[in-house]
Amino acid sequence: MAFKKDDNFGEWYSEVVVNSEIIEYHDIPGCYILRPWVMEIWELLKEFFDAEIKKLKSKSYYFPLFVTENVVQKKKDHFESFAPEVAWVTKTGNSELEAPIAIRPTSETVMYPYFAKWIRSHRNLPLRCNQWCSVVRWECSNPIPLIRSREFLWQEGHTVFATKEESDEEVLHILELYRRIYEEFLAVPVSKGRKSEMEKFAGGLYTTSVEAFIPNTGRGIQAATSNCLGQNFAKMFEIFFEGENDPTQKKKNKKDKRSLVWQNSWAYTTRSIGVMVMTHGDDKGLVLPPRVAPIQVIVIPDPLLEDADTAAIKGVCETIVYTLNQAGIRADLDARENHAPEWKYSHWEMKGVPLRIEIDVKDLANKQVRVVRRDNGAKVDIPSTDLVEHVKVLLDGIQDSLFETAKQKRDACIEVVHTWDEFTAALNDKKLILAPWCEEEEVEKDVRARTEGDLGSAKTLCAPFDQPDLPEGTVCFASGKPAKTWSFWGRSY
Prior knowledge:
Elements (H helix, E strand, L loop, with lengths): L8 H11 L3 E3 L6 E3 L1 H20 L3 E2 L5 E3 H6 L1 H4 L7 E6 L2 E9 L4 H11 L8 E10 L14 E11 L2 H22 L5 E4 L11 E9 L4 E12 L1 H6 L2 E2 L17 E2 L1 E8 L1 H10 L16 E5 L8 H17 L4 E3 L7 H10 L4 E5 L1 H6 L1 E6 L5 E5 L3 H27 E3 L3 H9 L3 E6 L3 H11 L7 E6 L20 E8 L1
Parallel strand pairs: 3-7, 11-23, 15-16, 15-17, 20-21
Antiparallel strand pairs: 1-2, 4-6, 5-6, 7-8, 8-14, 9-10, 9-22, 10-11, 11-14, 12-13, 17-18, 18-19, 21-23, 22-23
Helix pairs in contact: 2-6
């Protein structure tokens, strides 16, 4: 590694994601090739999340990635928030298209005309659909691999209900699944909360999110969102249903008797993996939490002596890999003969494999193996007969340790402020700021304007659901008006 995490975070991150074989740079700036190592992590996350939403009876769909211009213009109030990032197709071959076609930055305008077609009565509800796909948002400022790219992978769920109560319940259920993805799988601490009116999803009723924080840069990052769209999109796209025992069911041309549906949308992206890299990586490269590591244990033979019984050592290594795999542990053998063991150690450390097992002649004779942890470098000799149980305990310990360490670092960055001077000092000190706020949009705009600089301006991240006590008489840090809530603030990605 040419760069150290604490010295030059941006260059360090760029080096890690390439050298660990997560991404390769593409010849179109802001677009990246996702290599097998990152795709396997994404598939592990997908396996968990897909199973959970299928319990909710969510169905898989795939909608086209193109949006016609007439739909965009018809729904421009929603689309305008994405307008600066929308990519357009204007010609095919050498011929200009009659009308340009947008490439989806999100799929509301693609999906909802068909929801209006499919939904007629309460019997069609709830409608729950999800698709795993890519979207394009033409980032022009500062693309960062996995964090801000011009094309990225995500899942987007879109659901339709008869009542607001059903909608509200699902919003929080999905948000909890996102928390689990980050905290239980990626070992990244997040805060659940509600976005401000300025920061909510365009056209929605309200937005909830999980928010992460990167201590090295002092920046928050929106990790995933679960949106209650209310009935705004139902009005735009004329999505109605006729209720049970509704006397208008058998009548025609009585549209005013029908009810508007309630809708949600929710999504998380491959940004989640970038957040994980930033949180756990070190000066040797990636550090992967065991639950998302494509290979949890790498086994490396080390003959030591030229006349060592390499065949016997390799045979034991193969048996260990087989035994671990049979126990449900993702293990692999690096038996390449054109690289020295030390090179292999460095290679797999760079790729972040949680555990390394080394076997040499002495280990063979003593019927033991040496196990090395990636997260802290600790080494322990384990009898071969007890290997599976020891490895399981070690993997669980690494998963827990990574989360607790990350949480301690994040919590150490949280600073509670009450005044503007305290706020600006904490912002300059790269803190995650918790401040009492009056919730007025003009005040939020003013905070952004007053903190604008080379590093970007401060913004609200979310009002956490876990609210500290707000004593009567507490005033907003920025306006001096009565405070209504505690909110996280900071610079963000």
